[in-house]
Amino acid sequence: MKATIALAGNPNSGKTTLFNALTGARQHVGNYPGVTVETKEGVCASGGDELRIVDLPGTYSLTAYSLEEIVTRDFLTGRKPDVVVDVVDASNLERNLYLTVQFLEMGLPLVLCLNMVDAARNRGIDVDAHRLSELLGVEVVPAVARTGKGKEELLGAAVRKVRASSAREPLVISYGNDLDEALGDMEALIRSRAFLPGAGPARWVALKFLEEDAEILKQGEASDPAAAALLRETAARVATHLARTLDIEPEALISDQRYGYIHALLREGVVRRQHEENRMYVSDRIDRFLTHRLLGPLVMLAVVMGLYRFMFTYSERPVEWVEAIFAWLGRLASAHLPAGMLRSLVVSGVIDGVGGVLSFVPLILLMFFGIALLEDSGYLARVAYMLDRVFRIFGLHGNSVMAFIVAGGIAGGCAVPGVMAARTLRSPRERLATLLTVPFMNCGAKLPVFAVLIAAFFAEARETVMLTITLISWAGALLAAKLLRSTVIRGPATPFVMELPPYRVPTLRGLLIHTWERTWQYIKKAGTVILAIAIVLWAMMTFPALSDSHYERFERERAVIPASASTERAGELEAVGRAEAEAALRYSVAGRIGGALERVTRWAGFDWRTNIALLGGFGAKEVVVSTLGTAYSLGEVDPAESGGLAERLAANPEWNRAVAWSLIIFTIFYAPCSVTVVCIVREAGSWKWGAFSVLFNTAVAFALAVLVYQAGVALGAG
Amino acid sequence: MEIFLVVLIVALAAGWLFRRIRRSVRHPVCSGCGGCSRAGSRSAPVRPPAGRSHTRPEALEPPADGKDLPSRKEMSYNGGQ
Q1: CA distance A78 to chain B (A)
Q2: B55 pLDDT more than 90
Q3: Comparing C-alpha atoms, which of A541, A523, A701 is closest to residue A629?
Q4: CB atoms B79 and A95 under 8 Å
Q5: Which residues, 6 or more positions from A57, have their beta carbon under 8 angstroms from its beta carbon?
Q6: What is the fold of A2-164?
Q7: Would you say the ipTM is above 0.85?
Q8: Residue B28 is nearest to which of A340, A416, A619, comparing CB atoms?
Q9: Contact call for B38 and A412, based on CB within 8 A
């Protein structure tokens, strides 16, 4: 038998954890709401049956309030899964059942997964699954998705439900005399006209008209305008009556009545509490301190600072080891390959280019470990909660915080899932403002750029500089959002409700999996995309080669140096060799492009090599490091004998702290990488916004870089 | 011989990059910068080997008309509590 099982439920109720447990997948799971913004499919086998499991985005309701709700509802009504597994958090039953009641009202084939029963028991909440099953008329399976407990029973229940295949009568709740009377009339009309048969049962469609659900209203207008007009007329009449008599909107009354139904149900011996309901739990006690209006932000800064300190302190030695391995590889290649283009490609293009990116693997690994720790413990959700207040001032929504954090709010994320996370915003204007400012965050790809510059110029204050970089990127993103929201994307702010999950002690296994998966992606990218770009850029920095007349000139210069064994002669020969390498680089395609831009970029302190690196960074930000590595390696007489990129930059007279800060600022703000731009285009629905993001970000970045460089020079840092 | 080898390597790298760029324009994926664990998850829906899973996220498209969704009370989220 083949069947489709949809996993639905409230945000952060453990759907993705259950999905992973059932399918063996490793989809990202976070201890905060909104991690899943798209449906995911997996396959699992159970007793000879092939089950297609679909993980739906978390929703609190089935209204047309947010995109996740629309997607979930459209999937349930349009794709008609064979069974819906409603994942509910056992410690938060009342609120979770609000969605369950709506599923029952839609008449969906339902199995209830009572998840996190262990956490509920720890909080002194005991749920009688059998009694709940009796009252709701659906199978209820207690489970702990994190450990896989109850997984088999759940699959068994789902398969039984599919095999039974008896149509379920939709649940009918009384919404009071006023609404019930209107619902009766509307239902009769819907049935007689066969109005929107695919949208759900007649009573459900009538309820949606009373709630003024935009999606259903639109579908109704398109399908049968006359019937839709009659239904709207009835809904308007009821709304006027309720406003006059009870001072309430139909939607609020419907919601109240549903909660009344759930409350009555739970009082039938379903939930037993060992403690009083309003008891302060450990999480609440911790939150009084960690989300305190004054202390909270200070703790947050201390946590981020501590994370950076941990990352730099413990990665220092391993980074040196990896650098030493690449230096050894360079010497090995130089010793075994004859001098020429192939050796140059291998040593300067591949080893010095990709090696520069890979040497930061230990640093990236520790950073991801720290982020996984904050994420799995539930602290990141608190960060979002605290930053919501700040975000509102700058015209962004609370949900934007999560997109910012995913994109690298604490250095080390990725702009692509950050852009995708903006889907949780209901207002297109707020979503657009988020899409355009999310790339200002410091993704994992920008991290090696900062790490090289910090190692070369700010080695004594690494974590302070990293924290400053983080604060600059947040300040820049918020100011840009404010600018956009008060000019090109003006519009009202929408309310934000966020559920704070309880703190959980992360499992070592979970932390290691999260850390390794992300670190592996970094390594994989360095070995594929970055390697290919490094090879192409090496060719661009090598061809066309100098003409014979150029080489003859350098040979003549060498010939006039008096023959002796003195160190003075060796120095002079090296100087000629360096001038020759530099002339060859400047003569190449990349050298000419970088040189042409130099006239403008000199204002920000960038030479032609930096220009090439930054252009390459549009492909992927790590390329800035790999290209600088190749460019400075090609400029060396004997690249295999030179130190790492940080050493080379520190020793180069053209580089100083003003240039370093200018490059840091430019890297934070300039055009997003190409994949992010494509994502912005898709999410915003127009190439216009992709182009805007490239031009706007680069203009802002250049203006700030010039400002910083000129100020640095004026203050004597240049 | 050496120049042939170098040209071949560069051409292979450039060709692979071109394909990759073309693919990412059609199906933008996180190209593995480490921020998430979903790199490449938008690959084509292929049936997995027995016992293994395969994931295929589906696009959650914004409303076609680009207009704001209807304004709703905060109450609908928490049921008026």
Answers
A1: 14
A2: no
A3: A541
A4: yes
A5: A11, A36, A37, A38, A39, A68, A71, A72, B60
A6: Rossmann fold (3.40.50)
A7: no
A8: A416
A9: no
